Amino acid sequence: MEIGHTLGSPWVTRVTSIGLPRWENRLSVRDLSISYFLLYTCALRANTGRVNLDRLNRGMFTRVFILLFACFLLVPLRADAPSRRFELKAESPEFWKLIDHNAQLTRIGGGFGFTEGPVWDPSGFLYVSDEVQNKIYRLYLDGRKEEVIALGDPDGNTYDRQHRLLDCASVLRAIISITPDGHYTVLADHYDGKKFNSPNDVIIGPDGAIYFTDPTLDLVEGQKQEIPFQGVYRLDDKGNVRLLTKDLTQPNGLAFSPDGKHFYVDDSEKRNIRVYDVAPGATLSSGRIFGEEPGGKDDGVPDGIKVDKKGNLYFTGPKGIWVWDSQGHHLGTIVVPEQPANLGWGDADYRTLYITATTSVYRLRTKSQGFVPYLHH
Q1: Is the predicted pLDDT of residue 73 greater than 80, yes or no?
Q2: Between vectors from CA 316 to CA 121 and to CA 362, what angle results, nearest 5°?
Q3: What are the DSSP calls for 297-339, one per residue?
Q4: In the prediction, which pLDDT does 89 show?
Q5: N- to C-terminal Cα distance for the chain?
Q6: In the chain, where does DSSP find H-type helix?
Q7: Using one digit for the tens of pLDDT, what is the confidence trace for 75-116?
């Protein structure tokens, strides 16, 4: 890793670049090597009359082929190092009240398929879902990981107030609880007699109930969508499921404000964030657009959400973590080397953001203290 200089903007600092070739460059060498290999194979069959080797400089051709084919063998099938750089990119000086100018992003775990749902345990590890390897792991700060359960496409996780681990089990199309030794219980898998689509993210509300989103983003190919919309739901301790809203096209991350008066949900398809007023009895009203997170096709979309104790919001979005104040002002972006899908507060003081980003898990200390819903009752 090498540290770059401060960019021209007065609000951008701490640029960290990855000192390895970009994947595009590696790919071009691979393709060229394959092309030479095919051409050389044709040349060796020149006796068919299709290729005239007398017109080729065999020695030069062979040397070039060997060099390029060696490059092909040395190029890995996938790039282990991301091409994006870590940046703290402020849109307002208020950003620096939440994140230190000299904050360091640390990679604490790698080798995953696609990480999601980080949950900090006071014992000093994270629960992390891997949607590609179809497992939930315990990940320790030294990089060690232990398999907890093998499960089809596990997604967002949270603890509840009883310290049970809850998971959005996409293939099961259910909200489940998981014991430390890897056994699960289905808490809910139907609404109005129909199967959920593919539960995506889950939190505990100020009333202790379970709140979750149910888009079709991870609906198993070939399975039928039974509910004709993508909803946001409340699950109480008696197993009753209540629809809160079906306003969103693909609802994903969700969060309550610390005072419980506002409820946020982002929409991965529309690339925006909605906020609702919360009335007694967990009734939502006055749904409106809180913010937009535009980006390029491959830059990422709004996904996981976390809130700090002062009501600032941290959304995964294009290229990293977008930080907003409670009034809907975009304060800045934490650009992450790999595209993040979710995040969670951790460490003993809950001032560290743990970020699940594609094949890795990252750690970033902040000046803020996280609001952790299942700890507040």
Answers
A1: no
A2: 50
A3: TTS-----EEEETTS-EEEEETTEEEEE-TTS-EEEEEE-SS-
A4: 97
A5: 43
A6: 23-44, 58-74
A7: 444 444 456 899 999 999 999 999 999 999 999 999 999 999
